[in-house]
């Protein structure tokens, strides 16, 4: 079965009172809708080209390339993510990772939006599904990230939800297997997403009621067959590749890193409020208005909507709770975690249209409404980012990318490709790890991700550098720069491991060694270039 097909659906025929109306696509096929969503995603996700890549994505690119060159993950270098993440970045790496993530993220967003529209089209009016897809694409652009989570993991969550909804509506077991594959990739990117299974249980009960218990049992089995289709190769490759023990150790460290009691409840609440405020205000008041208006319409017309729409409302509510629960581990509440909330919010922001009487949901009105939404989104996006794109195009100091461009030029001009360099940066500057790759003086290439997760490996990194001090150090004035005082580092303790830093003797020795034996020779943006002093004569 082709997953993008639109076969006739008996529950969309509108033959019973209160049932969904007959579908009217205006002649637009599913692939045409996919093309439209893709164009919309490419036009609204352009921030990833002019902004610096997120720190995590830069790590994944460097690690994926090290893996492709023969280095064993979790053995020669360390990261806490499952191998699925590095396979993804190896699969999309065609030269410039920023362009690769941009294009791949847009394609996945369009596919998720198109399938979400089809799933809702099977149980409701076309306008509900169309707006769900449009809201999803627009909000991921408004949110301002192009992280592993919103570019790759979130679309798989949306696809799994849409395919399970289609399986329940149409009685197709093939969709459950496809949903299992999507779920396997999702958990491989973001393990806390395992709790999403609870949100999808209503689809199981709906499928059993509509198509019989046997369909539900077989569909459930095929779902886990799809999950196994992802994870059996992962486990087999880890065992055969000799990094199974390191992978298990990474998962164990992840549990410690994600402990709920790492921070007080009050800290959880403060960070939760800050992220929700940013989420609600991303793109102005429209997202909050859309969700509140849709929910009001859905509650007011609850008796008029079909049983299938009610199930979707329950699934979206449980999905939102599950996605929110996934932000709590470790108490960090990092912004990218909250991108997972955009999927259920897009559904909740559009289901209210299912309660609109069919007579009012006329084709011409829907087209005007959709066109107005698309035009308004594109206009506000490009007006808001015009000056940013101009600064990027002219490589002025107002662009986040200019310091990265200058530093890459300096490294390529001054340092041979085979000379070891200690790169010790975080944040926007992390692109240096793959923009101008140089051998590292330690197998653990990037120290920042070790500070809290694996402090023993962080200490080993510091010892490695002390034993093999390089000629050049590129740092960001945080870990090794002049500003890395004990008082400054302790400020980082609640979220970035400052206490771990000040309690690591080898790091303290390394910091003092850098201050005594290196000179500051240049700098750009937040990055500093240090060169080792000549050895005393004799």
Describe this structure in words.
Helix content is 62%, strand content 4%. It is mainly α and 538 residues long. Strand 3 and strand 4 form a beta hairpin. Helix 1 crosses helix 5 (97-121). The chain is globular, with a radius of gyration of 25 Å.
Write the layout of secondary structure elements.
Blueprint: H1 30-44, H2 47-50, H3 55-68, H4 83-92, H5 97-121, H6 126-143, H7 148-170, H8 173-189, H9 196-211, H10 213-241, H11 244-257, H12 265-281, H13 286-300, H14 307-325, H15 342-348, H16 363-394, H17 401-414, E1 421-424, H18 432-435, H19 455-467, E2 472-475, H20 486-491, H21 493-496, H22 498-502, H23 505-517, E3 518-524, E4 527-532
Parallel strand pairs: 1-2
Antiparallel strand pairs: 2-4, 3-4
Helix pairs in contact: 1-5, 1-6, 3-4, 5-6, 5-7, 6-15, 6-16, 7-8, 7-9, 8-10, 9-10, 9-14, 14-15, 19-23
What is the overall pLDDT average?
Answer: 85
Q: The biggest beta sheet, please?
A: 4 strands, mixed
Beginning-to-end CA distance, first to last residue: 78 Å
Instruction: Tell me roughly what share of residues is in helical segments.
Output: 55-70%
The topology string of helices and strands comes to HHHHHHHHHHHHHHHHHEHHEHHHHEE
Radius of gyration (Å) = 25 Å
Supply the number of helical segments: 23
- How many beta-strand segments? 4
Assign an overall shape: globular
Residue share in β-strands: under 5%
Strand order of the largest sheet: 1-2-4-3
Poorly predicted runs are 1-27
Structural class: mainly alpha
